[in-house]
Amino acid sequence: MLIGREAELAAAGRALDRLAARGPSALLLVGEAGIGKSSLLADAAARAGRGGIRVAAARAAEFERDVPFALLTALLDEALADPPPRLAAPPVDALVERPRHRLNRELRLLLEALAAGRRVLLAIDDLHWSDAASLEALLALVHRPPRGAVCLLLAARPGTAALRLTEALRSRPDAERVDVGPLAAGDAARLVGPSLSRRERTGVLAAAGGNPFYLQELSRTARSAPAEHGESSAGGAIPAAIMAAVAAEVAALGRAARALLHGAAVAGDPFDPDLAVAACGKPLGDAVDDLLAADLVRPDGRPRQLRFRHPIVRAAVLEAAGEAFRVAA
Fold first, then answer.
1. Nearest to 318 by CA among 234, 229, 257
2. How many angstroms separate the CA atoms of 136 and 100, rounded?
3. Is the peptide bond before 90 cis (omega within 30 degrees of 0)?
4. Ranges of H-type helices in the chain
């Protein structure tokens, strides 16, 4: 059961209501890593399944970003796993080999045929990791949706994919974008639960900043002895799961952007990009733009000042940079 998220659940409910009325609909959830987009997608898909709606789910993966149509192939394999008896669909491999204009048209027609005798929900997660070919096909599908009962539930972190999807949705009256933010203080406390001491609860709530993933992982390790990892802003060990999640985001950056991020972690939070450059000893180039696009850092509202998306992200980056780098910086 999800805690809080009334606005997000209401938006998903509206999308499902439009689907129940045999019309198209779309919902885009945008939020930082760990904020709960996947849980919201799973909840909406479960509600749809209980209502007799055909659900097909797919998730983009960072290691498949260079594989053309990896995401679209996974989605279509799922959608066509149980097709209507009269649907004569081309093999997925043959479909994605079509020229782009034919692919877009045939994909739309295929979904219309799939929805002819039933309602269809396509739940697509982690679109920020999508391969370029799949994203282009989905953008065309969002902009020019299939006629009939097809609902697109999409989730992405802030960045280029989210911006392009938002633009494609702009002209559709049946579409919404919802920005998924931190949990309210009361909901965050409910998620942590009563098992921690007052001091532990206060530390976890302060360090997590309303991020459900951080809340759960920090709560799980709140009573454990200091580990071999860095420390969160609450002074406790950063859980291995959070370290791994941040490391995956950093690994997707180019070499210059990774170096600048390490320098920024030494420079402080918020930080001056020039000081971060001095700390890492590398030229600036487009690295700042790369960090902003990845939503690892954000504008601080003051000239020449940036801040990390979350204090725990800075702490994890600083620890992962290594002692030799920190001393040199």
1. 229
2. 9
3. no
4. 6-20, 37-50, 70-79, 92-96, 100-114, 132-143, 160-169, 185-192, 198-208, 212-221, 240-251, 255-267, 273-280, 287-293, 311-321, 323-328
233: confidence class by pLDDT, cuts 50, 70, 90: very low
Supply the Cα-derived Rg of the chain in whole angstroms. 22
Strands 297-299 and 306-308: antiparallel
Question: d(Cα 299, Cα 306) in Å, to the nearest integer?
Answer: 5
Rounded to two decimals, the pTM is 0.89
Distance between CA 312 and CA 296 in Å, rounded?
A: 11
What value does the mean pLDDT take over residues 16-40? 95
121 SS3 class: strand
Spatial distance between the Cα atoms of 165 and 36, rounded to a whole number of angstroms: 19
Q: Is the Cβ–Cβ distance between 56 and 79 less than 8 Å?
A: yes
DSSP code string of 200-251:
HHHHHHHHHTT-HHHHHHHHHHTTSPP-SS-B-TTSSBPPHHHHHHHHHHHH
Q: Are residues 48 and 121 in contact, defined by beta-carbon separation less than 8 angstroms?
A: yes
Three-state DSSP at 196 gives coil
- Interval 107-160: pLDDT, tens: 999 999 889 878 999 999 999 999 999 999 999 999 999 999 999 999 999 999
pLDDT > 60? residue 291: yes
